[in-house]
Amino acid sequence: MNFTTVKNTSITELLHTESANRDIDWLKSSLNAAIELELATLPPYLCAWWSVKDSNAPAAALIRSVLIEEMLHMGLVANMLTTIGGTPTISTVLPSYPGPLPGGVRPQLTVYLAGLSKTYLDDVCKQIEYPESGPIAFFAGETFPTIGAFYDAILVAFQELNPTMTGANQLVDTVGPHQLYAINTLADVEKAINEIKVQGEGTALSPDSEEFGGELAHYYKFDEISHGRKLIQVDGRWRYAGDVVPFPETYPMVQVPQGGWSNPPSEVQQLLDTFNNTFKLVLDNLEDAWTTGDKDKLGMAIGLMFQLKDPAVKLMQIPLPDGSGNYGPDFLIYT
User: How many helices (H) and strands (E) does the chain have?
Assistant: First the structure.
């Protein structure tokens, strides 16, 4: 069985392009790279979410809220791309796991797929969302090559190029409690990038933003699960001293090995095939939606995403032969 992966231009390469050479093609390439980056966060977060046995548990709700916002961010970036005449590449750019984030962001990080655990939160989820200047709780005072830094460069390019925005192939929809809106002006771009950065990382001074409903940035949502407490202000300082966030009971999905599961039982292989074929349809419909501006395709993709949970959870309940834990989805794209 063959697998296909098409890579967009490396984010590292894009960031090393001199400012004077950051033209409209650079901007289109950067937006496609940003789509690839947002897409890469979904499989690890989905595995964490599906592995929680009680979908109503506070921890599950926190992970679900992060997933919804990541999907919103991908949609906003796709709208930024199509309005300047670009075409999103979605169906062929999913990275392989374990492996680095696309494009050279946080190159020391290896992202793998596994069920929720405190180790998985620390090693994967929180590392993907690591704030630009370090978490406010630590006041490290250091800067890192983060996702936020890349979005800063995209915003500067929009401001300097001021490209024509045609409004082509814009998809507008409700994504959970949030709104996916059209990108028609530079002000729309600035709002979208600010929203992506604040929801993902928080600001330099605070882990939340009144501008977007006072909701915590993703890093701190994951950290609430780690600490077992809500992050609140106490005497003007942020502390994990709020309501208890019980660590949930989970299915013991172990880390998916490179290249997927080796010679799994037929029952497992059938579930993997069902899952991966459905996920490929999700990606195909997302790409078609923004290539044509067809909102129905977006609806089809969302509907198919709901269908992924059943085979995923069934996999997470099947023990591996060696007794080390259970199977789980491997997100392999078949060709």
Answer: 11, 6
Three-state SS for 260? coil
User: For residue 165, how many C-alpha atoms fall within 13 Å in the half-sphere facing its CB?
Assistant: 19
Query: What is the architecture of the domain spanning 11-259?
Result: Up-down Bundle (1.20)
Residue 263: burial class (beta carbons within 10 Å; 0-12, 13-18, 19+): exposed
Name the residue type at position 186: L
Dihedral sign, CA of 38, 280, 80, 298? Answer: negative
Dihedral angle over CA of 252, 257, 263, 269, nearest 10: 60
The two tokens of residue 77 are 């970036």
Across the range 117-128, mean pLDDT stands at: 94
- Phi and psi at residue 44, in whole multiples of 5°? -65, -35
In a 10 Å sphere around its CB, with 0-12 CB exposed, 13-18 middle and 19+ buried, how is residue 16 labelled?
exposed
Residue 190 contacts residue 155 (beta carbons within 8 Å):
yes
pLDDT at 289 over 90: yes
pLDDT at 139: 34
Q: Three-class SS of residue 215?
A: strand
Side chain identity, residue 272: L
